[in-house]
Amino acid sequence: MKILQNMCRNVFEYRRKVSLSCGRFYCNSPRDNSRLRVLFFGTDNFSLPSLRILNDSFKSNGTVTSLEVVTSFKATKNPLKRFADGENLRLHDWPLQQTGPEVHRNFDLGVVVSFGHLIPEALISSFRLGMLNVHASLLPKLRGAAPIVHAIAAGHAETGVTIMRIRPRHFDVGEILAQRHVPIGPHTLMPELHGQLANVGAAALLHCVENLDRYYRCLRTQDDGEATYAPKIVPQFADIRWAGMGAREVYDRFRALYSYRPLTTRLGAELVKIFRVSCDGEGEVGGGEEDFVPGEIRFCRKSKRLRVRCGDGNMVCVEQLSIGGKKVMSGQEFYNGFLSKLEPVNRVFINEN
User: Fold this and answer.
1) Mutual orientation of helices 190-210 and 48-59 as an angle, nearest 10°?
2) Dmax over Cα atoms in the chain, in whole Å?
3) Which pTM does this prediction carry?
4) With contact defined as beta carbons under 8 Å apart, do 34 and 64 qualify?
5) How big is the CA angle at 118 (ends 138 and 260), to the nearest 5 degrees?
């Protein structure tokens, strides 16, 4: 009998510990969390699908019972401001004038998607249910401002989105509610992946909002030892180091920056901007003659393409480029107008770094 009592006590203690470890969160509230007043923070096109899906819930009398938007009125061509105006959602300029008791009284939950500003601790704690963030990576991988660009540039075959709880004073370190995996194809360009992740993130966000109590009971702490970083993109990230980069690395850098900024290099003293790069064959970057040096340019008359040797001995094909601030041209136009006038020894792209 005593053994049975001890077993029962151990089971009860185990359940109590599991409950505490899974549900340790400040929002233990008797209120009904199936109906939520949401304040949304965002600035760009990645934010828009999340705002749309929350607005759909609001309009259909779903979980979201009220919805207002915080954004930067200084941002030009702000898609969130335009959408909110069209949907008659109340807008707030950042930084917010109301904090503390005013937010606590008017909203239950804050949602942040691609906002780019560190939220003050006083504002985070003023939400009864805290704040959620949609981040475009599988945290703790690729913490930082540019996870999509860095995922493609690094040649990753997979990325995803994370719904996390925001912690004060730090970006991208909070507990994880949910994650969704998204494959990256070998030729996927940044705008395509950006759109996929924005839509997947929006769907995951809504599922978390609609089932918030369940997700909060099973928050998962990030392992800082597994963290990698995706810092803000600086202009130098577009520079091609022909001797130090392999052909696949150059092609991945083009895919990562496509539509955001062109790759850059130099021909003599002239700045060259490269707008389109391609691979030969079925996804393989082409090889060539043994006497190439990194950065050397050759024009193939048969295919009418510029081929440039990279540091690993393979080549990429440059299809669209400009030189010295002139118009964008094809490889053949570049050869006819510029390259053919140079001595072969001078037909080499260089990088100053």
Assistant:
1) 30
2) 99
3) 0.88
4) no
5) 60
Exposure letters 45-61 (e unless 16+ CB within 10 A, then b): ebbbbbbebbbebbeee
Q: Where are the alpha helices (DSSP H) in the chain?
A: 2-23, 48-59, 79-87, 101-106, 121-126, 147-153, 190-210, 212-217, 247-257, 331-337
Report angle CA 211, 215, 220 to the nearest 5 degrees: 165
3-state secondary structure 61-86: CCCEEEEEEEECCCCCCCHHHHHHHH
- 268 φψ region: left (φ > 0), alpha (ψ -120 to 50), beta (else): left
**Sheet with strand 90-93: strands edge to edge:** 90-93, 64-71, 36-42, 109-113, 131-135, 158-165, 176-183
Quote the CA–CA distance of 130 and 109 in Å, as a whole number: 6
pLDDT in tens, 308-341: 999 999 999 999 999 999 999 999 999 999 999 9
For residue 96, with 0-12 CB atoms within 10 Å meaning exposed, 13-18 middle and 19 or more buried, which class applies?
middle
d(C-alpha 210, C-alpha 7), whole Å = 38
Cβ-contact 296, 347 below 8 angstroms? yes
